[in-house]
Write a structure and sequence with these properties.
This protein has five helices and no strands. It is mainly alpha-helical.
Length: about 110
């Protein structure tokens, strides 16, 4: 099931990498917020939305040279929220990682 229908239909591929990652970060931020409130269902839904956006970013041929980093980020998100957190990733780390893309995306406007 496609959650972000208009983005999947092509709009996503008009965004810069910083804009794409900032949007992913927004969903990750929502997931963390819901997790901290104890609402696993809403947190999981936000992570699923984030992963859909990550998958769209992976499909974007412009980022072929950045694919390794994008795939690792996807792996870390899955491990942090659904796995055993073998990378010992904190929510604070994820928030900082995505924050900088949000700043960069806004600076580009």
């Amino acid at each position: 099931m496609v959650i972000h229908k208009t983005l999947a239909e092509g709009r996503w591929f008009t965004l810069t990498l910083a804009e794409q990652l900032a949007n992913i970060g927004s969903e990750v931020e929502r997931a963390i917020s819901w997790h901290k409130k104890g609402d696993k269902e809403q947190s999981d839904k936000a992570v699923e939305r984030a992963l859909e956006l990550v998958d769209l970013t992976i499909e974007d041929k412009r980022w072929k040279g950045r694919l390794k980093e994008i795939l690792r980020m996807r792996e870390i998100l899955c491990d942090t929220f659904f796995g055993d957190n073998i990378y010992d990733t904190s929510f604070e780390f994820l928030q900082k990682y995505f924050l900088y893309f949000g700043i960069l995306a806004r600076a580009g406007r």
